[in-house]
Design brief:
Elements: H1 7-26, H2 32-58, H3 67-84, H4 94-106, H5 109-127
Helix pairs in contact: 2-3, 2-5, 3-4
């Protein structure tokens, strides 16, 4: 795996992935059954990711003053490793990438509002 040196590399990977998925969609109805199976598997994977993130967030002390930052970090690390593979975790540039993405997300008011809602729901589930 190539080292990560900037968000440009991530952007290029995402661009290629979107282009590949668009090309797959254009293949037509012949592959619709296979696409449905892939979509179903992806939804299952997404649910597993969601549960992994929720578990990690529940493990963070609700009184921890750094809770929000830790929550964003858990989210970013989990999603990136889920999307691009666990091998990314050992990349020397991974921490810098996570820091860059975390900073960008923390400055987005919509993301921050959604994160706070998710944190509240996670804490409520923990208390039940």
């Amino acid at each position: 795996m190539d080292p990560i040196n900037s968000l440009n590399k991530l952007t290029e990977i995402l661009r290629k992935r979107v282009a590949a998925e668009a090309a797959e969609k254009r293949k037509g109805a012949a592959n619709s059954r296979e696409a449905a199976t892939t979509a179903s598997a992806r939804r299952a994977d997404t649910e597993a990711l969601r549960e992994q993130i929720a578990c990690s967030i529940r493990a963070i002390d609700p009184d921890d003053p750094a809770r929000v930052g830790k929550t964003v970090r858990v989210f970013v690390e989990s999603v990136l490793s889920w999307q691009f593979g666990a091998g990314l975790l050992s990349d020397p540039g991974f921490a810098d990438l996570v820091n860059d993405v975390q900073s960008a997300l923390e400055s987005d008011p919509e993301f921050f509002a959604a994160l706070e809602r998710a944190m509240s729901e996670t804490v409520e589930r923990k208390e039940r």
